[in-house]
Amino acid sequence: MSNDPPIIIPAPSSSISPATIIFLHGLGDDANGWTDLVSQFHAAHKLPHLKWILPNAPQNRDVMAQAWFMPKPFSPIPMPKRSGEPDPEEDDEEDDEEGMMKSVEYICGLIDKEVEAGVPAERLVVGGFSQGCAISLLLGLMSRYKAKLGGVVGLSGYLPLSGRVGKMMEDRKEEGQDTSQTKWFLGHGSRDQLVPKWMFMRYKDQIEGWEGERVEAKLYEGMGHSTVGAEVRDLCGWLERAVPENEA
Questions:
Q1: Which of 164, 174, 204, 233 has the fewest CB atoms inside 10 Å of its own CB, making it the most exposed?
Q2: Which of the following is catalytic: 103, 130, 162, 180?
Q3: Tell me: the pLDDT tens digits for 208-248?
Q4: Catalytic residue at 49?
Q5: 4, 15, 87, 225: which is the annotated catalytic residue?
Q6: 207, 213, 209: which is closest to 241 by C-alpha?
Q7: What is the DSSP string of 176-211?
């Protein structure tokens, strides 16, 4: 089933350095669920140079909701392998890789259109919440736009296919292709009941190991599977630095 058209919110003011953020909703939500966030920024006269594209995931008949991929059940406690640590390769077996990569390619198509319209890849940010976070992380790490984007945002999500991604990142480093300038903002709630905190801590450590000081990661005490004012303010400040209004 095809995706409904995205909601496109133009930048309130013109800029000599246009920038775009593509932000993906979570499971069961849709693009309309994030228009209020954009309105908050505009009402506060923040990020006036930023164009927002809010895509819609296709309807998934199996879960009776809009979904970027088939979800898998999570446990609040990581299932250990024999060494006592969770095994990323075992996690990969449960991931809907086909559905995930189809969604990644759909978002890459939206990026293509922005680049064709004159927005440089380094002035593009891709981000998302929950399932949208998972797709954004995969896109930033293993798509044809890996290492080219200005930034990636991951809120209240996790890194799927982590075993495969880890192997690819190690191969990249060994081949001397570790030249990414992409900046990362990762946020999660300490009381998230849907995506356990341990999943955030694990993928945060992984991405920090691959991307180093370009990663800004924050755990918000008391926050559930949602956003709070502190996270929104931190995201705004990060976007101002990742894609500044008038880049020289």
A1: 174
A2: 130
A3: 999 999 999 999 999 999 999 999 999 999 999 999 997 65
A4: no
A5: 225
A6: 213
A7: T------EEEEEEETT-SSS-HHHHHHHHHHHHHHH
